[in-house]
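so my prof wants the structure for this chain in the tokens format not the other one, which i didnt know existed until like an hour ago. anyway here's the sequence
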Amino acid sequence: MGSVQVMNRIFEMAWRRTRWWMLMPAVMTALAEGPAWALAPVDAVTGATLWTPQPEAAELHPGLAVTYSYGRQVHVDDIEVLRNPVIGEPLENIAHRTIDGNVLTSTQAMLVAAHIRGLIRFEKAGTYVFRIESNDGVRAKIGGRQIWVDPEIHPNRWSAPIPVVIEAPGWYELWINYYQKKGTSALQLVWTVPESSEETHVPPAVFSHLEAQIGQ
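here's what i got, hopefully its the right format
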């Protein structure tokens, strides 16, 4: 298990107000369980398509557009259409985790649904390996292809590694529907780029959005 998963275990136990000396068994267990790559594999995602036409630099806005709706949700299918949508501040990246703070850039700490829309730039062709952490439900697509869905209410948990085959460099659509019911919230997107073994958060520099994607 990687360092991200070790910290997740610590975070979850701390949230339950466990005494500090009781955290050590969780750390040791997490380390003993082996690498994150031991999770059940998923098939490589192929067929992602470039955004057409490729945008000019002047058309791009930094970050990802996000639209919120507030109310109780229990499944990601419930938010295909947002009720009473509210446009939020763009997301610089997808690296969100909180115990009781506001969800993403919303104005609430619970009962939040989000449509995240934008573009992601791949510098070169190859296989990019993604993982997604969510709490609660999420559905994510790149270039029109679904890469992950974990639709129902659940605690913080990571997806299996998701290989995404990119056939040509350029801008691709990034599409995420996400909701949080109550309590802790999390939405994180990490990747390992071709010819690298280092997993990192997808950097803000590769995210942008178009005016037309605001409010979707």
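also thought this was worth mentioning. The first helix runs from residue 3 to 15.
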